[in-house]
């Protein structure tokens, strides 16, 4: 769908320079999705892996973030192999509904209520990022913790349009449950992509 160089705005790598590759296609259907234009895989042009890597090499940062849509709808083995060969750390943001393909340095698992995650994701996730849209999302987030590795980082992030309402609840929740951390969409505060 698009690729661009910016800062990672969310989660464990917030503030780091990153080359984002946003793949088209998603069948999860979150009503609050901020990139609904990514859903239709046929609405976006195809690019060769060589072109994607060449685009990333134009910038000094060596962290590549594959996102979507839902990137694991695609076999990412070739893309991650080429990025690693070119010297990139590979990160992915996924809802985890498909089996993991590719070679990853960091996997951000962001489950959604609209489609159940594939069991493959639980032992591979380095980070759980739960989006808090409603008070019931705290229990949803907690429901995954026992299935994750003990070193998986846990983040609660307010859905952007409800930040004013949800952020105070998240702050109080993290104070009471210190195994969690707050994630904010800092790129939106900085007005960058």
TrEMBL record:
It catalyses: 6-carboxy-5,6,7,8-tetrahydropterin + H(+) = 7-carboxy-7-carbaguanine + NH4(+). Residues 13-193 form the Radical SAM core domain. SUPFAM superfamilies: Radical SAM enzymes (SSF102114). Signal peptide: none annotated. GO terms for molecular function: 4 iron, 4 sulfur cluster binding; carbon-nitrogen lyase activity; magnesium ion binding; S-adenosyl-L-methionine binding. Substrate binds at residues 7-9, 22, 67, 193. Its cofactor is S-adenosyl-L-methionine; [4Fe-4S] cluster; Mg(2+). Keywords: 4Fe-4S, Iron, Iron-sulfur, Lyase, Magnesium, Metal-binding, Queuosine biosynthesis, S-adenosyl-L-methionine. GO terms for biological process: tRNA queuosine(34) biosynthetic process. Its EC number is 4.3.99.3. [4Fe-4S] cluster binds at residues 26, 30, 33. S-adenosyl-L-methionine binds at residues 32-34, 69, 110-112. It is an enzyme of class 4 (lyase). Pathway: Purine metabolism; 7-cyano-7-deazaguanine biosynthesis. Pfam families: Radical_SAM (PF04055). Binds 1 S-adenosyl-L-methionine per subunit. Gene3D superfamilies: Aldolase class I. Belongs to the radical SAM superfamily. 7-carboxy-7-deazaguanine synthase family. PANTHER family: 7-CARBOXY-7-DEAZAGUANINE SYNTHASE. Homodimer. Catalyzes the complex heterocyclic radical-mediated conversion of 6-carboxy-5,6,7,8-tetrahydropterin (CPH4) to 7-carboxy-7-deazaguanine (CDG), a step common to the biosynthetic pathways of all 7-deazapurine-containing compounds. This is 7-carboxy-7-deazaguanine synthase. It comes from Larkinella rosea. The gene is queE.
């Amino acid at each position: 769908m698009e690729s661009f160089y910016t800062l990672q705005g969310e989660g464990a790598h917030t503030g780091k320079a990153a080359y984002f590759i946003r793949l088209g296609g998603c069948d999860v259907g979150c009503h609050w999705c901020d990139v609904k234009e990514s859903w239709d895989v046929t609405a976006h042009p195809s690019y060769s892996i060589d072109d994607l890597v060449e685009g990333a090499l134009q910038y000094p940062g060596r962290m590549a973030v594959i996102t979507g849509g839902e990137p694991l709808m695609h076999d990412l083995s070739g893309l991650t192999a080429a990025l690693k060969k070119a010297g990139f750390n590979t990160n992915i943001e996924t809802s985890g509904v498909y089996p993991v393909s590719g070679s990853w340095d960091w996997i951000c698992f962001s489950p959604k209520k609209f489609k159940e995650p594939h069991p493959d994701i639980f032992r591979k996730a380095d980070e759980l990022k739960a989006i808090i849209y409603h008070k019931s999302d705290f229990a949803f987030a907690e429901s995954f913790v026992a299935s994750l590795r003990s070193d998986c980082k846990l983040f609660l992030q307010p859905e952007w349009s409800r930040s004013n309402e949800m952020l105070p609840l998240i702050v109080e929740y993290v104070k009471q449950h210190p195994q969690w951390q707050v994630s904010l969409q800092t790129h939106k505060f900085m007005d960058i992509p």
